[in-house]
Amino acid sequence: MNHNAHYADPGSSALPLHLLDRDGYGAWRSAQPAAVSAWLDAQDFQPAPGSVALLPGEGGIAGAIVGIGDPLDPCSYAHAPTALPSGAWAPAADLAPEQLAALQLGWGLGSYRFERYKNPPRAPARLRLPQLDGEALDVLLATMRVRDWVNTPTQDMGPQHLEAIARELAAEHGAHVEVVAGESLLAHNFPAIHAVGRASHRTPRLIELRWGDPSHPHVVLVGKGVCFDTGGLDIKPADGMRNMKKDMGGAAHALALAALVMSRKLPVRLSLLVPAVENAIGPDAFRPGEVIATRAGVSVEIDNTDAEGRVILCDALTYAGEQKPALIVDFATLTGAARIALGPDLPALFANDDALAADWIASGERTRDPVWRMPLWRPYLRYLTSNVADLANAGSRMAGAVTAALYLERFVPGGTPWAHLDTYAWNDSSRPGRPAGGEALGLRSAWALLKARYG
User: Fold this and answer.
1) Beta-strand (E) ranges in 68-183?
2) Residues tagged active-site
């Protein structure tokens, strides 16, 4: 993956790119030669967000107008790489550093194509800037990693592949990885992870990456790594199972964010935990009505085997809490209920700390990567009541995203700041900067949150 491929060498020639919103278009147009105005009038051009107009010159194309909306939203520029002819393009006017960073990131987001199994029809146009912003490059790489990992079908993205990714990142950044797998999960007291993953021919495991100075604040990132979700014995219908290669999207977010933290050398002590399983159907699949043990000593009755993500996360969260960190953040493609409530673009944020939630929301506004806070409404714990165990993993169609978050909170020690992001990790259709398929939703804002807190 070459995240520099979307950008032209600073010394190369490039056509001028006029980045204009509705407010700036009139003044720019009035300063142009009459022939340019007539050309734009002949096309009935208006600088609406997402628009492009090529400008004529004696030798062919003299430049282009790119209509934009919010100048600090990377996706304002994301249509340009495929709407413009191939070649190099450069901003025609000086831009503020924040707008340059948004342009650079948006150009990369709009140029992205998943190319592992299929060649794209043509190369996108390239952007020439005097100097590339290093942080924007790293954020783009993190986003592309999430997209690539989520887009990869399960035969090439099982639990062992998530482990390989973690080991590659550790080797790149000088981190340490330990993995507990198979029957060792029982010996090391991770019984819930084992229960969910035991039916698959691919061994379940808990992947742990550690990095950073022990004297720095300890941040734990947790990612749901269900590499395929059949629903288990409570099997999903075909349309519900179709895209379940993406059920490791939480792990993809956590891995990419961990890599971003390490590459930017954020002064934290980082732990990354990925419980990685396949929720498969087989002779040893866990069953509705079973009571399983958890690391916390809380017995859990399985009401529904399709509510498996919270079951593997509860062991990981318990282990995270035992380390008494300054912050725990988990990412999970956890519930369809969150999508019904907020749609595909807004991840549902739950937090046991108001300041933490407010900081993440503010970071989302700054980065144009929004999240929306949902309540940990504890009276709804009644929907997780079991007659035979301490807790049920599900039990009602009511408030599904809330009850899932309440289940997770049961395994987070009181007093430990914790945030849970229920993210879709997917685009159902293509829009500029948001191609159909795997997507990083909440990643940029999570990075901004950590940077603001610890940078």
Assistant:
1) 88-91, 126-127, 176-181
2) 236, 310
Residue 122 burial (10 A CB sphere; 0-12, 13-18, 19+): exposed
Going from the C-alpha of 391 to that of each of 196, 211, 378, 396, 446, the distances in angstroms are: 16, 34, 14, 13, 30
Give the pair of three-digit tokens for residue 281.
Answer: 């159907």
Q: Are 343 and 319 in contact (CB under 8 A)?
A: no
Tell me phi and psi for residue 236, to 5 degrees.
-75, 150
C-beta separation of 375 from 402 below 8 A: yes
DSSP 124: P
The whole-angstrom separation of Cα 394 and Cα 293 is 16
- pLDDT digit of tens for each residue in the chain (455 aa)? 566 779 999 878 999 999 999 999 999 999 999 999 999 999 999 999 999 999 998 888 999 999 999 999 999 999 999 999 999 999 999 999 999 999 999 999 999 999 999 987 789 999 999 999 999 999 999 999 999 999 999 999 999 999 999 999 999 999 999 999 999 999 999 999 999 999 999 999 999 999 999 999 999 999 999 999 999 999 999 999 999 999 999 999 999 999 999 999 999 999 999 999 999 999 999 999 999 999 999 999 999 999 999 999 999 999 999 999 999 999 999 999 999 999 999 999 999 999 999 999 999 999 999 999 999 999 999 999 999 999 999 999 999 999 999 999 999 999 999 999 999 999 999 999 999 999 999 999 999 999 999 99
Are the C-beta atoms of residues 245 and 114 closer than 8 Å to each other?
no
Please give the Cα distance from 386 to 404 (Å, whole number). Answer: 15
- Predicted TM-score (pTM) of the model is 0.96
Beta strands in 129-245 (DSSP E): 176-181, 205-211, 218-223, 225-229
From the list 91, 104, 171, the residue with the least C-alpha distance to 139 is 104
Residues in the chain: 455
